[in-house]
Specification:
Distance between the termini: 29 Å
Mean pLDDT: 81
CATH topology of the largest domain: hpI Integrase, Chain A
Shape: elongated
CATH architecture of the largest domain: Orthogonal Bundle
Number of domains: 2
Structural class: mainly alpha
Radius of gyration: 26 Å
Largest sheet: 3 strands, antiparallel
CATH class of the largest domain: Mainly Alpha
Oligomer: single chain
Number of helices: 11
Number of strands: 3
Amino acid sequence: MPMSTPARHLSASGGRPTPAAALTAVPSTAASIIELERILDVFRTVNRTAKDVVSDSRLQQLEWVASELALALPLGLSETAGDSLEDLLAPDAVHAYLLLGRGGFLRTMPTVSTDPTSVDSSERIRIYCLEAFARQARIPFEAPDMPPMTLRPTVPPQFADLITDHLEDEAGQWPEVDRPDVIVRGLAMWGVMRDVLPRRGELESMLVDDLTLTMDMRTRKVQNRTLKIVRQPQGGLRGREPEPEIVELSEDTAERLIDWLDRRDKLITRLQGSVPEHLWLSTPPHPDSGVPIHSRGISKWYKKVADAVQVKQDAAADGEIAEEDLVPTRWETMRRTLLAQRQATEGTA
């Protein structure tokens, strides 16, 4: 993730400075910075012995935020910010620090980046690192609100429509009763993708009980149509307890899920032993049809669909396809594109 360059002085010999040099911005080192340096040493030790706990990139972020705090302290974070680490991480000092960082006053090198997305990413890193310092020091910390995640579209969003059209074309080649289970599941799964934007692991873990579909017997339409998803915290939020989210589904997706649930019921009748609770199951000709589909299976299914759409695109363009017009074959790439599109739409609403 983008971040400013830490403040570092050259040694007398002109060589590369030690990380501790990043914390010498205050001429007479304040007590809070000395405490911060001790906490930083703990992270360095853990990094040397357990990189799965504190990775090299995470340590770099922690040292960067520590160096910024040392630079910000003499600029006037609060009257007591230099007295102790607890005072340095108090709400008023943290608020002042984040304002200085967001305004670019703590940069040590010129930058041409004015992208708000980059600024928000840097602020999320700052808040995560401040929380990590407080947690390690066992002092209270009131975490500021995280800036919202804003993604740039990675591919043209119309590719999602092409995939929808392809799946519907495939389904239209079969009478409804003879339609293969994999096509029925695919339409439902892609509908959930467009409505809910789940990661593959989140899709894999969905249960039938997470789905609420209530039929109005008079109109024969689905009235209540929601899906519960447990989104796994990402980035600086990793380690937090995930909270369930209830997402409303479109009418089309609800109808496709009803079709899939009917097929799903028939699949599990062939099984021996316990009945799976997962929403998404493997389908014939898979040898384990009826058992929960795994993340890798979702990935393989999506890639097969994306490849088929690309073949159609190539044929329509007589092979003259620009690189940016290639259909993404990774689920996550498409998910991020749809998320960015949704954020842009909501931002202009």
